Amino acid sequence: MKLLLKSGRVIDPSQDIDMVMDILIEDGKISRMEKDISISETDSKDSMKIFDLKDKIVTPGLIDMHTHLREPGFEYKETIRTGSEAAVAGGFTSIACMANTDPVNDNRSVTEFIHKQARLAAMANVYPIAAVSKGQRGKVLAEFGDLKNAGAVAFSDDGNPVTDSGLMRHALEYAYSFDMPVISHCEDTGLSSGGMMNEGFVSTQLGLPGIPTIAEDIMVIRDINLAGFTKTRVHIAHVSTAGSVQAVREARSAGINVTAETAPHYFTLTDEALKGFSTSFKMYPPLRDSDDVEAVKEGLRDGTIDAIASDHAPHSSVEKDVEFEYAANGIIGLETSLSLCLKLVDEGILTIGQLIEKLSVNPADILKIPKGSLKTGSDADITVIDMNKIWTVDTNKFRSKGHNCPFNGWELKGKAVMTIVGGDIRYADFKL
Amino acid sequence: MKLSRKDMLGIVDLPREEIDLILDTAESFKEISTRKIKKVPTLRGKTVITLFFEASTRTRTSFEIAAKRLSADTINISASTSSVVKGETLIDTARNLESMNPDIIIIRHSAAGAAHILAGLLEQSIINAGDGAHEHPTQALLDMLTIREKKGTMEGLKIAIVGDITHSRVARSNIYGFTKMGADVAICGPAMMIPRDIDRMGVSVYYNMEDAIKGADVVMMLRMQLERQEKNPFPSLREYANHFSLNRDNINLAKDDVLVMHPGPINRGVEITPEIADGPYSVILEQVTNGVAVRMALLYLLSGGRK
């Protein structure tokens, strides 16, 4: 089946394209992209589907480079199937999933299992991120070479920091020798342990133990120093503080190979949101204050922060419908991420092109996966966005098993209305 | 005038007029506890449950006596005797209690926000009897009643609160209450026990006891809660007592008619020396007496009573 996407505004930063064009998809690939593709006589209704995408935006398939799919081990929270269904519903054609499963993805068999489950689900492309250390215990490196050959795209102990600086150094050097990124969860546990929320005036009011911003900043600075000293590269996960943004900015201008991502909640919410003790606002790193939110926005605007990832972290009510102190960290994000990101365009912080870079082109570059472009011949991974669609977040309608969403009930503007993966329509919010 | 709320979760959102209402009501209830027959029929037929997930003698007993003097039926549940030890969640416990149609549930819990969970879930009135390091509103109300009785007003008084402010729900509720009533509040303690940005609550911060209590009308000592300091504990009780104890030397820095207060239980010889705890300035036991009156007032007002 061929697909012809007509009259959409095609935005592909990888080719510097922003114009109304038609795209023809054949055999799962982008075969033509031109001003006006006419339908030849040989194409019947049975062999080609045509979509009029006037007033819609057509972009390279979005990539969420930081999710937790919970399988294997925590299938009651999410599975690779439900997680990748949530992904395409949110406009993501590719997602990378973290290694903190049970068993941990620290060996070939788990990486291969994830690939197999993703193939069976046949929704989004799923790229496993393997653990830095065996069991994510921070003692012994995982088998990076074997994991790469099995199909891992990066290494991360996300959920936990790599506390031992010597081990982190070796991880950066060894991963670099395989041309693979290390994604760092930056947390100085000496400063953060026992903490429940951002340390500041709100934590003082609520009587909850705080997690200071410096718990993040110090580790970001350590990892930047390690990457600089070893002449390797590091990717900083979920940046939430002004200090981290500034550290990455300075490192970049000093020529150190560091990239960074943030998540939509870090530019959308502040720690004021915790005043009702709702566990839907509990995550790591915690929501910060308005100065940090402004710094994250500035980091996005000036390019210091390369990517936006949801840090989709589903939990069941067993972990969330409890006292705030006992609740698990994490919120879901795959089905709200794009709409929250589009607010940045509305606010004039990013152009739509810059946003697509952070949601597709740059994540593909960082993970070195052959995605993030609509070049002729590339996989037909495409997201179609309706910038004006108003919708109300309702977790009961989510594909994700998780309901731990701080945005439930919010009215949002802009949404993915069609998600195409490998030339196959995996999601459409209209009747096909 | 009536209370404008279903629950009593904290002082933070309690307007000054409602504080006055509760204190006025408490004053009028005080007399009941001095009668020969210490019981009035006001809350006859009402059921009050105390649900305590943390150890307490004073507060739980005080609530129970308050309810009984108003003729309510009281049931006491403590964590060790409840299903909590069998792994039941707070929400399930609450829903089960709700099914038995009580009128008021009084909860103490080590987790901040626990009373808020119940308040959002249940139709019953919820009284927060202490949630983690967050709030302990009835303690603040009884402290305010005690000061008002002795000083006539809180307006313009200098009140020093000394101790582990970080872990103290009493400190937070009292800071909200005292500042609303027009007092100047000074807090004091070892640097690591002063939480970040607390000056934004409208208090002045001291790290030196002498500076904090100089000229004070009220000095409130908090219990040094060593058991709450799992991580990076304070060097020793001896070190603490050397620097943050109220004793017969430093008490002279306060006003001549200073009130010495303590929410209890006191650690004699740690934050307060025995001669000060038992001395002429101490109103520690009057605080306890006022606790019953304040809780009677609150139970009455939350049940729809009016002044």
Describe this structure in words.
- The complex is a heterodimer of chains A (432) and B (307).
- By secondary structure, chain A is α/β, with parallel strands linked by helices.
- Chain A is built from 13 helices and 18 strands.
- In chain A, the strands form four sheets. In chain A, strands 1, 2, 3, 4, 5, 16, 17 and 18 form an eight-stranded mixed β-sheet that branches. A four-stranded parallel β-sheet of chain A has the order 6-7-8-9. Chain A has a four-stranded parallel β-sheet with strand order 10-13-14-15.
- The longest helix of chain A is centred in the middle third of the chain and has 17 residues, at 214-230.
- Chain A is globular.
- The mean pLDDT of chain A is 97.
- Chain B is built from ten helices and nine strands.
- With 307 residues, chain B is an alpha/beta fold.
- Chain B has helices at 16-30, 58-69, 90-98, 114-121, 137-151, 169-180, 209-213, 237-244, 274-277, 284-302; strands spanning 47-52, 73-78, 104-109, 125-131, 158-162, 184-188, 204-206, 218-221, 259-261.
- A five-stranded parallel β-sheet of chain B has the order 7-6-5-8-9. In chain B, strands 2-1-3-4 form a four-stranded parallel β-sheet, sandwiched between helices.
Strand content of chain A: 15-25%
Neighbour order of strands in the largest sheet of chain B: 7-6-5-8-9
User: How much helicity do the residues of chain A have?
Assistant: 25-40%
Mean pLDDT of chain B: 94
Q: Assess the beta-strand content of chain B as a share of residues.
A: 5-15%
- Which term fits the overall shape of chain B? globular
Structure class of chain B: alpha/beta
pLDDT average of chain A, as an integer?
A: 97
Summarize the structure.
The complex is a heterodimer of chains A (432) and B (307). Chain A has 432 residues and is α/β, with parallel strands linked by helices. Chain A is built from 13 helices and 18 strands.
